[in-house]
Fold:
Amino acid sequence: MKKILVAALALVMLMTACCAVAEDTVKIGGLSPLTGAVAVYGLAVQAGVDYAVDEINANGGVLGKQIEFVWRDDQGDPAYAVSMYNQLVGEGIDALVGAVTTAPTIAVFNEAAKTGIPAITASASAYEVTNAGNNVFRACFLDPYQAGIAAQFCKDNLGAETVAILYDNANDYTLGLYEAFTAKAAEIGLEVVAVEVGVAGQADYSAQIGKIADAEPDVIYAAEYAQELAIMLPQMFDAGLDETPLVGPDGFSGVDSQVGDDVGLLANCYYTSAFSLNSTSDVAKAFIEGFTAKTGAAPTLFNALGYDAMKIMAQAIENAGSTEKEAIVAALDATDIEGATGHMTFDDHNDPIKSVFVISFSDEGKEQLETVVNP
Amino acid sequence: MKPATFLITFINGLQLGSVYALIALGYTMVYGIVKLINFAHGDILMVGSYVVLFMLTTVFAAQTLLAKIIAVAAAIIFCVVLGIVIDRVAYTPLRSAPRISALITAIGVSLALQIIAQLIFGSEQIKFPAVIINETIFKIGKKPVKSLPIITCIVSVVLMLLLNLFVNKTKPGRAMRAVSEDMGAAKLMGINVNNTISLTFAIGCSLAAVGSVFYAQKVGYVKPLMGSLPGIKAFIAAVFGGIGSIPGAVLGGFVIGMLETFVNYFASEYVDAVVYGLLIVVLLVRPAGILGKPMREKV
Structure:
């Protein structure tokens, strides 16, 4: 009898111990390409999210509990992302922050919509991303919006009449930008004189660039990532396009560290961005200072978006008052937050309404704020 | 197309073609001798450029001419040793296994090289230092003609001529041709088959190492996955010219490089469709390639 009592007591203690652990934290899952071709973005978002989690936990967490954050590597691959997402769900996450690139995010959000789990991506910016359901959100602005602003900037600020476009037709992100840019250009009377394709991973863009040079545009819009841009810039200079302004999307972020000492290459580069290190808001300043102190490097756009995505999710859980899926989603809908990337609310499509920064480069090759375009 | 643009596009096509030809030679020689499509060959290109980068940024403080020469030599030696080691470790044990086993192993080696490079150097692309003089020779209008493409073409053509001499006029070259024709008979004639195969890998990898310097400087950056695309294009070049044929690989390299460059000018959205489409057409119409010997499979 005594033995049974002891055993029962031990069992009760074990059960309370286990359940106490389960109730102790709010578990949030993260999906990001931590290896592979787009790992540069995945690691940046991860650093931003991790910084936000540390900050929130240091200030008492959410709902009086600490956040337990679990990372999974999606390698930038949609199929892989879905299986990693299923793993996270199996571990009982309350919410998801991820994925990072567009294609895996669309795949994962389609799955997330079936279970209604609250999810937010830091950086996937194609329109379809939040089509999946009313429980999926994003912290970054949309491709079409960004490219439209870029077209407006080319015409109004740079005084361009003609534009040549360079884009990657094998990538959802760049394709979306291209379509939105051409639509806006037609609307505002900016003539497109050349459209060329430069696929990522190609080493030699000089033929396409040569054709653009022949068309003599006032400005070039390049819907490409920083890695490709860094390869293209010297080839553009070789083709005699050194004085033609080059405008691009937020994928240009980080190009200054790519070109190294050849800062002259960036003299006529501009890109649209949701973030600037010269931002004047208190939240942005505090984030920039704190992140720099912690990591030793100033935050990039993707760091800031990771930070904001995590802050939005944490605030929604706090406002929801519980980890009920529906309550968090409702709180996300009502988001009104000042983040590192500016003030944000969500529209009917769960996309943020926020201002856009146009970034240029100083003579030393440092990013500087050219102008701010408000919605 | 303006005449100046045409000339510069033509030179760029030759430059790209030279690099493809250098890599294609490695594919074709290895296939010729052991009937293996060495899919890891493109990644040798990547390894070569990382060795140069490592030598010029970590080992040597100043990028002097001597440092550059030593760096390129180190890349060649490293790639040669790596090629031989890969053959001995991964391919030799499968010599008598079905060909598909060796092919799958080659893909595995390719992935292993890419992932090891990511672990050591990270996944971000890194700026590649200027190794070869790239000054403006003359200008057509605003467009400069640079020395790098010219040097690339000259060095590549000289290497190809030397290779041709080596294969046709020397004793080891004759051994290679003999092993390629009939491995069993060559063995009976007293040829050390394994050493001859190692020599083939060594030559292929040294050409890839030289190609890597030209390619990395053309791009301006190196990254762990940089070898896969030129590797595939060079493979197409080798198949186009006739896999197993050395002049075929050279011809294929230049044709693919030129084709890619000009399609990029006229219809850049279709460039991959045209290059891969050409592969399909060649395989359908002339499976042995332009300069390959048509062979009947023994059943």
